[in-house]
Design a protein that fits this description.
Elements: H1 2-18, H2 21-24, E1 32-37, E2 43-48, H3 52-62, E3 71-73, E4 78-82, H4 93-108, E5 118-121, H5 127-137, E6 141-142, E7 147-148, E8 151-152, H6 159-162, H7 164-178, H8 184-195, H9 200-205, H10 210-225, H11 239-242, H12 256-273, H13 278-287, H14 304-318, E9 320-323, E10 338-339, E11 343-344, H15 371-377, H16 380-387, E12 397-400, H17 410-424, H18 433-443, H19 449-458, H20 466-470, H21 472-489, H22 495-512, H23 514-517, E13 540-547, E14 555-562, E15 568-576, H24 582-599, E16 604-609, H25 612-619, H26 628-638, E17 643-648, H27 655-666, E18 673-676, H28 683-693
Parallel strand pairs: 4-5, 5-6, 13-16, 16-17
Antiparallel strand pairs: 1-2, 3-4, 7-8, 9-12, 10-11, 13-14, 14-15, 15-18
Length: 694
């Protein structure tokens, strides 16, 4: 039977090559497409008269199962992978494959280049099929050995060999840098900005073995300490200690293994945060069809990519906290929904409690916490924390606890891993706090990187008073100039005179820059208007501001509306209930403003605010899951306007709204207030803003 089958395949293959199908085959019940070149290297699909029934019969005789594993549309072409495992597929599916490509071409206007395309076969595919399928598709190249975005197409076999190119590529790049005779400041910049960026894409997809991580860190350490590729020097400090953050006395390099896990945790977070994406739907169907990414196991015969994502999920779980929406999916005593330094479960007041109690039972029908029940179940300090948690008509979900927005970032993930290692008291010693404070000050010095590095070496085992700490850059610079004078001019000055001069220069520099350094938070309003900017004709511009002091005080809020000529229409002020942070206060203020404008029958409005974070949260709410309840309400109210715009204002262009809101708490004006025109006590300021712009 096998010989007959192979003979039939060979006969069909021969008939197709001789293009003699009309005489020796019946008309096709379905169409098998054949590629035919046209003018200007454009390919079109032409039906060939091949009997699909005969193809089905031949495929049944051969007992060969094909799997369409991957179809990737890129600039270089399309790929069809065929293997033996998976759903049944027959030769007639080549027709469907080509039909899909034709549909893609017609829809996108792009033409597939089949000369650059390749077909990848599994190891168990019949040799005759390996010849027949490419002939039917007119794809001559066999894939599997190429690279896409720097990674191999087929990722099977020894992971140590497959990922060895990462360390080799990094070593090759570092060898080229040795010839430049860089200072430690230059080496720091190259290692952090370039060397650490080379393996990022691979580490975002796969978990590197400990061997690869060690080789990468060894290459970076050699580049840091050695003078060139041939002259090796002693590594005076372990690389683990150099990877300690700057605020703890290290140089701030990232540990490769921790960095790898933080990048993979980002992939796990995307699968959880974007469940409707194509990648999330594929993985859900394969590995966690009846659960979630946070609860599932590795599954049956998991791929290396999936095992890598599971490794990243271990870090993600350490920093997740339950964010309360309607409270229906959160258990009061078993889920972590209270945040102190780390996410935790609430403290119970009574010795006996209901394990199945849900948070929704603590929320009243008016959408507010039941204070009597809270005081009955929790201690007073716990009640204060719970009151600050906003609730709304959205589902409960997990968010990242260590970021204000609730969105996971690689930077915070690395920080969490470093903090866990530091708390365990791993390899590096705990430095004296005074030395750490000095090193933190050195990192903040406004000078070039190599001076900072020399300062860290100079301060490694010493402590100085405030005056000498501030003079460190001038001391180093004076020593350098004195060495050059001794070598080239054969002159030198008294050390005591040099120290005195450096202290005088440092004191003078610090005195002149004291106002700038102690001026608090200086906001660089790059690209922002210096004066109030009018809206387009027919629209109303509303400037708002929220004065937030702490999570236990009221919020002073205010808004003022003006037309395109700068004439004040109305203004209002109010005091809102306390919120947990400033961004939540700004969202509450915006929600109050939008509802006020809606009630005043204003349909086209431009909203001006000083908060860039507020604008970002409105544009990309998925990246701010902590505030999803407020953002959902803001989105709902915005839909009631015909036109609604948001723009960022500078402090100078939003002075009127700022002064009104700060007066609420300063002067105790806690009553709600709405009036036509502007406040009389700010008349001159309003005119100044308008004149400055117009």
């Amino acid at each position: 039977m096998r010989e007959t089958t192979h003979g039939s395949y060979a006969s069909l293959y021969k008939l197709k090559q001789t293009n003699d199908t009309e005489d020796k085959l019946k008309p096709a019940e379905k169409r098998v497409y054949e590629l035919k070149p046209a003018e200007e290297r454009v390919y079109e699909l032409k039906p060939a008269e091949v009997s699909v029934n005969e193809l089905d019969e031949l495929s049944e005789l051969s007992d060969i199962d094909l799997e369409l594993d991957e179809l990737s549309d890129t600039e270089d072409g399309a790929g069809l992978a065929a293997g033996r495992n998976g759903p049944l597929a027959r030769l007639s599916e080549c027709t469907e494959f080509l039909r899909c490509l034709k549909l893609y071409e017609d829809s996108s206007g792009q033409v597939i280049n089949f000369q650059k395309s390749a077909v990848t076969f599994g190891a168990a595919v019949d040799p005759v099929m390996k010849r027949l399928i490419p002939e039917l598709l007119h794809i001559d190249n066999e894939g599997g050995d190429g690279k896409y975005l720097g990674l191999l197409e087929c990722f099977s076999g020894s992971k140590q060999k497959l990922l060895a190119f990462i360390g080799e590529k990094l070593k090759k790049r570092l060898r080229g840098w040795f010839a430049k005779k860089l200072s430690h400041g230059g080496k720091e910049v190259l290692l952090k900005s370039i060397a650490m960026a080379l393996p990022v894409y691979a580490m975002s997809c796969f978990r590197l073995t400990k061997h690869h991580c060690q080789k990468i860190m060894s290459a970076m350490a050699s580049f840091w300490w050695d003078e060139d590729g041939e002259k090796r020097k002693i590594h005076w400090i372990a690389w683990k200690k150099i990877c300690v953050p700057k605020d703890k006395g290290g140089l701030g390099f990232r540990d490769i293994e921790d960095f790898n896990q933080a990048l993979l945790a980002k992939q796990a977070w995307k699968l959880y945060n974007e469940p409707n994406s194509l990648l999330a739907r594929v993985y859900k169907g394969r590995y966690y069809a009846s659960s979630t990414i946070l609860e599932c196991g590795k599954g049956y015969r998991p791929s290396y990519v999936w095992r890598s994502i599971i490794f990243g999920r271990e870090l993600l779980r350490k920093g997740l906290i339950r964010s309360i929406g309607d409270g229906r999916d959160t258990h009061v005593w078993t889920d972590k929904w209270i945040l102190d330094e780390v996410p935790r479960r609430p403290v119970n007041k009574q010795p006996c409690f209901d394990v199945n109690l849900r948070v929704s039972e603590l929320i009243g029908e008016d959408g507010k916490w039941k204070m009597e029940l809270l005081q009955q179940l929790f201690p007073p300090n716990e009640v204060d924390r719970i009151k600050q948690i906003g609730v709304g008509r959205v589902k409960d979900r997990e968010i990242w606890a260590f970021n204000k927005s609730g969105d996971y970032t690689v930077k915070i993930g690395c920080w969490l891993l470093t903090s866990v290692t530091s708390n365990r008291g791993d390899d590096h010693r705990v430095e004296d706090q005074a030395v750490i404070e000095i090193k933190k000050l050195i990192w903040k010095l406004p000078t070039i990187p190599k001076i900072r590095i020399h300062g860290l070496k100079f301060m490694e085992a010493s402590t100085f008073n405030q005056e000498r700490r501030q003079a460190i850059p001038w001391i180093l610079w004076t020593i350098w100039k004195n060495i050059n004078s001794l070598l080239y001019a054969e002159t030198q000055e008294s050390p005591s005179l040099l120290v005195q001069r450096t202290q005088e220069e440092a004191a003078l520099w610090n005195k002149l820059n004291k106002a700038k350094s102690n001026g608090g938070q200086v906001q660089a309003d790059m690209g922002m208007p210096k004066y109030w900017f009018p809206p387009t004709q027919g629209m109303i511009k509303c400037n708002l501001h929220a004065s937030w002091r702490s999570d236990k005080q009221f919020i002073g809020v205010a808004w003022i509306t003006r037309n395109h000529r700068g004439d004040v229409c109305m203004h209002a002020r109010d005091a809102l209930v306390p919120t947990s942070d400033k961004l939540a206060a700004e969202m509450e203020c915006l929600l109050w403003v939008l509802r006020s404008l809606r009630d005043l029958r204003i349909e086209e409005a431009s909203i001006g605010t000083e908060s860039q974070k507020l604008i970002d949260a409105i544009k990309t709410p998925a990246r701010w899951p902590r505030y999803r309840c407020l953002l959902r309400q803001i989105e709902t109210v915005c839909l009631e306007f015909t036109v609604i715009e948001f723009e960022v204002e500078s402090r100078e262009s939003n002075k009127v709204a700022r002064k009104i809101s700060t007066s609420v708490l300063r002067d105790g004006r806690l009553r709600s207030y709405l009036a036509l025109g502007g406040p009389a006590w700010l008349h001159d300021l309003i005119q100044t803003e308008v004149i400055g712009e117009l």
